[in-house]
Amino acid sequence: MVKFVHMSDTHLGYRARRGTTNKWAIENYSKPYEQEIYDCFLKVMIDVSKIKDLDYLVHCGDIFHHPSKYGSYPPPEPARRILKQGLQIFFENTSNQVPFIYIEGNHGIFRGYEYTPFESHINKDQYPNLYYFKERDLIEAIKSDKPLNLEFPDKKVRFYLFPFFEFKSFETYTSAYNNWIKNQQPKDNEYINIAVAHGSAGDETLHSKVNSDDFNYDYVALGHEHGFKKVSRNHYYSGGLLPLNFKERHENQAYLIVNIDDKTRELTRKTKFTDKEIKRVFEIIKIDVSPQDSSEDLIKKIKNELNKYVLNGGFNHNTSARLKFNFEGEIAFEKNWQINDLMLKIRRSCFSQPDKYNMLQLIWKISDISETREDDISAGVIQDYILEKPDDEFKTFVNEKLSEDKTEYNVDKLTEFGMKAIKKALRIMEKEKEV
């Protein structure tokens, strides 16, 4: 029997960006929700290190939240200290006998550099059972046409590693990756074969051979998506540890304890839902808006909800609420402006009274229900029309431009590259929205 823990996307150093109070959890050290993620990470490392007969701890990427594609600054100092503390706890409690296997995700890396923030605070020689695989290791494996795996002959276990790599960014990458990935197919059944990958079919960062059962792995440990999810027979996302934003509030975050019988290859799994550890209210509040509502009516509706977070003790960084107001109704431009103005004033008022409101974050979204009507020519409908046949329209555009410039290029290739860029830009725009 082989027993291992599958975890991912801890995002140490994450800080809520919008509408937060300036109160510190620990003076000049960390922000309140950032600190809660640190506390949860350390608790998980303690709990995992005490699991009886544990053989491996597998982390599927994004230990840190920064740096990332959208921000090159390094993780805050507390995040690196917490990682070091977590590793110290794990290896001390397991007497350095349990391997910790980590692959690089799309967060927590300096793109184009030979080192990462993971390495800047971690002395690998101090942890002989720490195994770390980054994008650079994957590129070298592709260049040499060799597999990227990790074997433990004594236990007959082999890990196949897939650090995050945007192999569909350029045609040459796609071709090289498709040729190389054949090396990642298990050659025998003598070993228990486990794939460890960071990516998703949704944004085309997870190769179809890993996403499917083609290679017949005994287990596929996945990272990148932040909610716990079973993808297929033995493919799982563990999710993160805590929800980072309001979208993730509707998902479950966890780590998985996986057992594989070395004779029958039967798989058993126990899910430990870490999102249950969250101490604060993390709530979306719906406010119905009517065209007849005056400013006084809106203020009354808003304050009726906010009064639930008035506490005698005032602000408490351990339990302070994260709130998002959703205003829904027939909302004309003037009403939209009115709501934004009111909420800005109310937020400033709440955050200037820390002895009254136990609140960490206050943000809002305004939804005009008329935009969903079929007869409404809204921005969303116009966008849908424009993107109805984007490939054909873009190809026509390219042809026209080349005719004007009197230049000769391969129109199909230009169209392919252009559409990839457009789709990638749309994915980035969607990802950056805080919902």
Helix-strand layout with pairing:
Blueprint: E1 2-7, H1 32-49, E2 56-59, H2 77-93, E3 100-103, H3 117-120, E4 130-133, H4 135-144, E5 149-152, E6 157-162, H5 171-180, E7 192-198, H6 208-211, E8 219-223, E9 229-230, E10 235-237, E11 254-260, E12 267-273, E13 282-289, H7 295-306, E14 321-329, H8 333-351, E15 359-368, H9 379-386, H10 390-405, H11 411-432
Parallel strand pairs: 1-2, 2-3, 3-4, 6-7, 7-8, 8-10, 13-14, 14-15
Antiparallel strand pairs: 1-11, 5-6, 9-10, 11-12
Question: How would you explain this protein's 3D organization?
Answer:
By secondary structure, this protein is α/β, with parallel strands linked by helices. It has three domains: 2-277, Purple Acid Phosphatase, chain A, domain 2 (4-Layer Sandwich), CATH 3.60.21.10; 282-372, no CATH class; 389-432. The protein is 32% helix and 20% strand. The protein has eleven helices and 15 strands. The protein has helices at residues 32-49, 77-93, 117-120, 135-144, 171-180, 208-211, 295-306, 333-351, 379-386, 390-405, 411-432, and strands at residues 2-7, 56-59, 100-103, 130-133, 149-152, 157-162, 192-198, 219-223, 229-230, 235-237, 254-260, 267-273, 282-289, 321-329, 359-368. The strands form three sheets. The chain has a six-stranded mixed sheet with strand order 4-3-2-1-11-12. A six-stranded mixed sheet has the order 5-6-7-8-10-9, with no helix packed on it. A three-stranded parallel sheet has the order 13-14-15, with helices on one face. Helix 2 (77-93) links the parallel strand 2 (56-59) and strand 3 (100-103). Helix 1 packs parallel to helix 2 and helix 10 (390-405) packs across helix 11. The longest helix is centred in the C-terminal third of the chain and has 22 residues, at 411-432. The chain starts with a strand and ends with a helix.
